[in-house]
Amino acid sequence: MTRIAIVGVAGRMGRTLVNAVEQDAEATLAGGIVEPDSSLAGADIGELAGVGKRGVVAVDSLASIADDFDVLIDFTAPQVTLANLAFCAEHGKRIVIGTTGMSDDELKVLDSYRDRVPLVFAPNMSVGVNLTLKLLQTAAKALGDEGYDIEVIESHHRHKVDSPSGTAIKMGEVIAESLGRNLKEHGVFERVGQCGPRTDKEIGFATVRAGDIVGEHTVMFATEGERIEITHKASSRMTFAKGAVRAARWVADKENGSYDMQDVLGLG
Ligand SMILES: NC(=O)C1=CN([C@@H]2O[C@H](COP(=O)(O)OP(=O)(O)OC[C@H]3O[C@@H](n4cnc5c(N)ncnc54)[C@H](OP(=O)(O)O)[C@@H]3O)[C@@H](O)[C@H]2O)C=CC1
Ligand SMILES: O=C(O)C1=N[C@H](C(=O)O)C[C@H](O)C1
Fold first, then answer.
1. Number of domains in the chain
2. Do 192 and 259 belong together in one domain?
3. Can you give the residue ranges of the Dihydrodipicolinate reductase C-terminal domain (predicted)?
4. How far apart are CA 106 and CA 109, in angstroms?
């Protein structure tokens, strides 16, 4: 049985993760962490998640439950996640990270832990998106240098704070890598005013933020005469949460290293 603690347990993903752990026969809820001084400290995390009392109360300090869990799942914010990663490395814990929106510097810090802790880090934990990444590799190799323009369009709920989504960036990276391009050089994240015509090798990104959209990603390969669109639509956060719990069970017996969902799902 893998003992799982969830950071940000009162958040959108945190509450869904409680449900996902509950439904997994090989995982158990070992703790939930809320922000320091949160009024939710002391609340039963089952009640927070709407599944009824589970006898595990939310705490506002990870240190206070250090002996209770094996794997931490963190879907919060970049600086919070990096602090928790340091904690896990120091205390011999494992960690699954779903947080997106990290800067290049923050990603370097995350990567510096690869030899100190077993960690899974992925901007999207759904099986569907990770399979889509494989489809994108195939499509990019076949079409990307044959006159097809590549555009990534993502839509999310009104509360999302980072843009483009971590998944959209990952899709762009996978496509760029398949084509021997550098996303830093060829990614176009804004088109405003007299920005000129499209260049052949650019990979464009467009973002929609509206209502309660859980998460939708389309990659368009368009040329004169035809257009191929590869789309993934998430209609429930459970798809991410189930993937994260699967990752937590998978990483529970792994050596130090930085893994992703392709590793967890055996798609690598
Ligand atoms: N990889 C994947 O598959 C997915 C990744 N995500 C990513 O997960 C992240 C969270 O998304 P979402 O759940 O929608 O966001 P929410 O804002 O709903 O949840 C974040 C939670 O973290 C809490 N938090 C903030 N600081 C701390 C702290 N120091 N200690 C403990 N908890 C803290 C917040 O508390 P408070 O509200 O009090 O500030 C909040 O409850 C985002 O980066 C998002 O992009 C989302 C879905 C899928
Ligand atoms: O913030 C979200 O909600 C989501 N974030 C992830 C991302 O940035 O890619 C994954 C998912 O699409 C939902």
1. 2
2. no
3. 128-265
4. 5
The bridge status of strand 257-259 relative to strand 2-7 is: unpaired
Each residue's pLDDT tens digit, 157-200:
999 999 999 999 999 999 999 999 999 999 999 999 999 999 99
Q: How many angstroms separate the Cα of 65 from the Cα of each of 32, 87, 114, 210?
A: 9, 12, 24, 37
Distance 224 CA to ligand 1 centre (A): 42
100 is in an annotated binding site: yes
The range of the structural domain enclosing residue 254 comes to 2-121+237-265
ipTM beyond cut 0.85:
yes
Residue 127: exposure state from Cβ atoms within 10 A (0-12, 13-18, ≥19): middle
What is the CATH classification number for the domain harbouring 246? 3.40.50.720
Q: Are residues 142 and 229 in the same domain?
A: yes
Looking at the CA of 166, which ligand is closest?
Answer: 2
Best residue among 240, 260, 261 to mutate for probing ligand 2's pocket (most ligand atoms within 8 Å of CB) is 240
Same domain flag for 222 and 242: no
> Which of 125, 153, 160, 169 to mutate for ligand 2's pocket (most ligand atoms within 8 Å of CB)?
160
Q: What is the pTM of this model?
A: 0.98
Q: What are the per-10-residue average pLDDT scores of the chain (268 residues)?
A: 97 98 97 96 96 95 96 98 98 98 98 98 98 98 95 98 98 98 97 96 98 98 98 98 98 98 94
- Do 199 and 244 lie in one domain? The reply is no
In the prediction, which pLDDT does 234 show? 98
Domain CATH for 134: 3.30.360.10
